[in-house]
Design brief:
533 residues; 4% helix; 39% strand; 7-stranded mixed beta sheet; mainly beta
């Protein structure tokens, strides 16, 4: 397999009408109104809603539907997901146009078994190209979602004129292009873990994820199934993200290009990242979940473009309720960790157990965000409804994790995440002083080798590596905390901080990605490619 796919030109075919009306003022980069920072711990700017904010805890927590395969054989399950424009009911009395997998936000949840291959056929009935990335998936390069491997709309696509002077010049690049549909193949030869899939289109990941292109993919295995952790209706995924809304209920987002055709990026005031003032959990604003007096497993995903959270649980009398973390990005920890709060950067996952068994029916437990202020300090709440029998528990030991020995590392690579000039004097975000170029491979790690990758940051940058998870070795001069003791695929890099990780790539040769998962940073060139050899 070649180290990278050579870009080629896309021939204009047909422009889909009506997309401008769907996006409407939500994409305009003018008249943005009063903006400001939202508390601490963020590298991003607040974009307030123009719509009236809904009353918190007025709606039930929705659970994304589990997708059923179209067919199955001895080795493989086959799915089809249709990407399409739809209306969602998020704010009371208003409709929100979305770009949705199967026309819903979040998209349907895929549930798989480790080692059992699945093939997902995506059909693009949207007015824009897409790229699907299975975040956390151990996936061949051809199905990993390289950002120029576009899936074009089935009705045709005309990208319009390029405006390279305002971006980093790659908006018109294409790689392995398909029209209408593409099959993504996932061998899933990996541990049980909470994965998620989302759009990864070059230059336009941020607005397309913001408008709804994200969903869960849960992988199970025998080791996890043997544990007495909560399961069934007490194993609940929570996709948490922030959004802003226009008067008419549409998403408010400061794109430079309202039609998401050729000009990447956001208004200059928001190049650090976009924060909304409405917190959504599984697509609902500040919802409530009725729970039994029992243990629950919550798979927390920060699916925000840029917002960091510090989640905490409190009863009505302000008593702290602990989280018991049992897993992270790459699956189970070796041992559980009790936490009074969980700090989650974009794309990180925290698999936690919350014990409601000691609370009387009627007790309310609220999940707060200690990095928020005003409406963004609230997330959701739980209401205990009844006493039940509960045989679940969190065992002392959860798993055995192979440790990557840094003494066996064959090399150390430096990756510096910082502001920079990305094209003709235009400011953006760079890695090692360079903007992303999908034709350039910045590293060529050999399959099976252990390497140390050292990340340094100017501001907050959640760093994500494709293909294989890694292990955090050090934060500055300190060892990582117990919460980061397992396999990770995204690490929360803080201002002026240096983080060292050990990584080993296996199985698949080809071009993969390293990038900041602040999606505005990603779209403004903070990505790098590496080729496994």
């Amino acid at each position: 397999m070649s180290a990278y796919r050579r870009p080629s030109a896309v021939r204009p075919t047909l422009s889909r009408r009506g997309f401008l009306g769907m996006v409407g003022a939500a994409g305009a980069a003018v008249a943005l109104g009063a903006c400001g920072r939202d508390s601490t711990g963020q590298t991003a700017q607040l974009l307030p809603s123009r719509a009236s904010l809904p009353k918190p805890y007025a709606v039930r927590l929705p659970i994304p539907p589990v997708k059923k395969p179209l067919r199955s054989d001895a080795t493989t399950d086959y799915y089809e997901v249709v990407q399409k424009v739809a209306d969602a009911r998020i704010l009371p009395g208003l409709r929100t146009p979305i770009l949705g997998y199967d026309g819903i936000f979040p998209g349907p949840t895929l549930v798989s078994r480790s080692g059992r291959r699945i093939v997902v056929r995506h059909r693009n009935e949207l007015p824009v190209p897409t790229v699907v990335h299975l975040h956390g998936g151990h996936t061949p390069a051809s199905s990993d979602g390289y950002p120029i491997d576009l899936l074009l709309p089935s009705a045709g696509w005309s990208p319009g004129a390029s405006h390279a002077s305002t971006g980093h010049g790659a908006a018109m690049m294409t790689g392995d292009v398909a029209k209408g549909q593409r099959d993504y193949t996932y061998p899933l030869d990996q541990r049980a873990a909470t994965l998620w899939y989302h759009d990864h289109r070059m230059d336009f990941t941020a607005p397309q994820v913001y408008r709804g292109l994200a969903g869960f993919h849960l992988v199970h295995d025998d080791e996890e199934a043997a544990l007495p952790l909560p399961q069934g209706e007490r194993d609940i995924p929570l996709m948490i993200c922030d959004r802003a809304f226009e008067h008419d209920g549409s998403f408010r987002y400061p794109s430079l290009d309202r039609e998401l055709r050729s000009t990447p990026g956001v208004d200059a005031d928001f190049m650090e990242g976009v924060l909304g003032d409405v917190i959504l959990v599984n697509g609902a604003p500040w919802p409530e979940l009725e729970v039994d007096a029992a243990r629950y497993r919550f798979r927390i995903l920060n699916a925000s473009n840029a917002r960091r959270y510090q989640f905490a649980l409190r009863t009505g009398d302000s008593t702290s309720v602990p989280f018991v973390q049992v897993g992270g990005d790459g699956g189970l920890l070796e041992r559980s960790v009790e936490l009074q709060s969980v700090v989650a950067a974009p794309a990180e996952r925290f698999d936690v157990v919350v014990d409601f068994s000691g609370y009387r029916p009627g007790t309310v437990v609220t999940m707060t965000n200690q990095l928020g202020s005003g409406p963004t300090a609230r997330v959701m709440r739980f209401r205990v409804t009844r006493k039940v029998r509960d045989d679940s528990r969190v065992p002392d030991r959860l798993s055995t994790i192979e440790r990557l020995d840094p003494a066996k590392a064959v090399r150390t690579r430096e990756w510096r995440f910082a502001r920079g000039v990305i094209n003709e004097g235009h400011k953006g975000w760079t890695i090692n002083g360079k903007p992303f170029d999908p034709r350039r491979m910045d590293a060529r790690p050999k399959l099976g080798d252990i390497e140390i990758w050292r990340f340094t940051a100017d501001l907050h940058h959640p760093v994500h590596i494709h293909l294989d998870p890694f292990q955090v070795l050090r934060r500055g001069n300190h060892s990582p905390g117990d919460s980061e003791s397992g396999w990770k695929d995204t690490v929360d890099l803080r201002p002026t901080e240096t983080v060292e990780v050990a990584v080993r790539f296996t199985d698949y040769r080809g071009a993969f990605m390293l990038h900041c998962h602040n999606l505005e940073h990603e779209d403004m060139a903070m990505m790098a490619s590496f080729a496994t050899v």
